[in-house]
């Protein structure tokens, strides 16, 4: 082959067609004729679930969703292929995890409708997989949508279902279910019930070890434990206990946990208001908002500050209005 023809072949192959593309197509045809032909895609998707469940790690929610797009397209394609029963069960578990992660991000962005839809899909996949811990995780995470956006009774119902699915053995999903139940009951004014669930959460958390305590969206590390209890005690009006949980959480929070730090600071501001200092509470919350990168100025953080505004308005309406103005 002369040099001109060689360069032409290379250019064609580089463009995505020609001999190299034909070889790739041949491999796909051979592979699809073999049993277990989806093994490579399943291994990739399992790795994708592990990679994505690590959290934001300084990335904005919208950026993470964009990075997941290709994996979601692959997941959809693989789900639409025929599989053996065992492979389908394994795939359903992977699907529940990946879809649940998308739901978490939609929740954080403040898109409640999409969060509910994605969580419902995650629960269907978890049920198909037969993995009760995956189902409990999806239900407990789902409960945080109504919990954080003003529907504590619905949240408590989902959280109780999560606890039932998790069972009595200590697990990350059981701890999360108990923590979310505590927050839902506190938000709904059930003080004794909330304190009972706080105690249950602590008991479970103390027994966790290994992968159950992983610092991911799928684990229940002590940092996450203190974040949940900070919110529970804040909702109960137990300021000092909330402060203790906030300090413990911040001591375990790695930079750049932008959203976690913001939510803990808003809890602290809410406690300040509870203790009768609405002006400093509003000042602190406004400072949190102003320090946030633009990509985080919405969704859950905005909702939490708006809730604080409602609390402050009961005793200091002018201060509350000034804080609302800062959110614009």
How many angstroms does the end-to-end distance come to? 68 Å
- Radius of gyration computed on alpha carbons: 24 Å
Poorly predicted regions are 3-15
- How many individual helices? 16
- Overall 3D shape: globular
Question: What average pLDDT do the residues reach?
Answer: 90
Strand pairing plus helix content: what structural class?
A: mainly alpha
What's the count of strands?
0
Largest sheet: none
The ordered H/E elements are: HHHHHHHHHHHHHHHH
Beta-strand share of residues: under 5%
- What share of residues is helical? over 70%
Relevant terms:
16 helices, 77% helix, disordered N terminus
Blueprint (SSEs and pairs):
Layout: H1 3-14, H2 19-32, H3 39-52, H4 61-79, H5 85-109, H6 112-129, H7 132-148, H8 152-166, H9 172-187, H10 191-207, H11 222-236, H12 239-252, H13 258-274, H14 278-291, H15 299-313, H16 317-326
Structure explained in plain terms:
- With 328 residues, the chain is mainly alpha-helical.
- 40% of the residues are buried.
- It is 77% helix and 0% strand.
- The longest helix is centred in the N-terminal third of the chain and has 25 residues, at 85-109.
- It has 16 helices and no strands.
Short description:
With 328 residues, the chain is mainly alpha-helical. The chain has helices spanning 3-14, 19-32, 39-52, 61-79, 85-109, 112-129, 132-148, 152-166, 172-187, 191-207, 222-236, 239-252, 258-274, 278-291, 299-313, 317-326.
């Amino acid at each position: 082959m002369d040099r001109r023809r060689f360069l032409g072949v290379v250019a064609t192959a580089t463009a995505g067609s020609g001999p190299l593309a034909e070889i790739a197509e041949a491999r796909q045809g051979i592979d699809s004729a073999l049993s277990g032909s989806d093994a490579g895609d399943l291994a990739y998707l399992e790795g994708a679930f592990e990679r994505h469940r690590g959290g934001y790690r300084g990335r904005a929610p919208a950026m993470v969703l964009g990075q997941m797009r290709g994996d979601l397209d692959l997941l959809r394609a693989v789900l639409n292929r025929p599989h053996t029963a065992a492979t389908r069960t394994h795939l359903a578990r992977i699907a529940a995890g990946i879809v649940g992660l998308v739901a978490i991000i939609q929740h954080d962005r403040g898109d409640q409708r999409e969060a509910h839809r994605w969580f419902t899909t995650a629960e269907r996949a978890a049920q198909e997989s037969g993995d009760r811990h995956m189902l409990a995780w999806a239900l407990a995470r789902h409960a945080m949508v109504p919990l954080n956006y003003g529907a504590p009774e619905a949240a408590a119902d989902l959280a109780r279902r999560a606890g039932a699915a998790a069972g009595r053995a200590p697990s990350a999903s059981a701890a999360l279910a108990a923590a979310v139940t505590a927050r839902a009951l506190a938000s709904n004014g059930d003080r004794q019930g909330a304190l009972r669930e706080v105690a249950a959460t602590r008991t479970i958390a103390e027994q966790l070890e290994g992968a159950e305590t992983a610092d991911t969206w799928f684990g229940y590390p002590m940092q996450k434990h203190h974040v949940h209890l900070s919110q529970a005690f804040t909702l109960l009006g137990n300021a000092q206990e909330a402060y203790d949980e906030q300090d413990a959480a911040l001591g375990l929070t790695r930079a750049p946990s932008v959203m976690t730090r913001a939510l803990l600071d808003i809890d602290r501001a809410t406690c300040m208001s509870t203790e009768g200092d609405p002006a400093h509470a509003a000042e602190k919350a406004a400072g949190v908002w102003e320090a946030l990168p633009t990509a985080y100025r919405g969704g859950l953080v905005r909702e939490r500050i708006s809730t604080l505004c409602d609390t402050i308005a009961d005793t200091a309406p002018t201060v509350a209005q000034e804080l609302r103005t800062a959110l614009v």
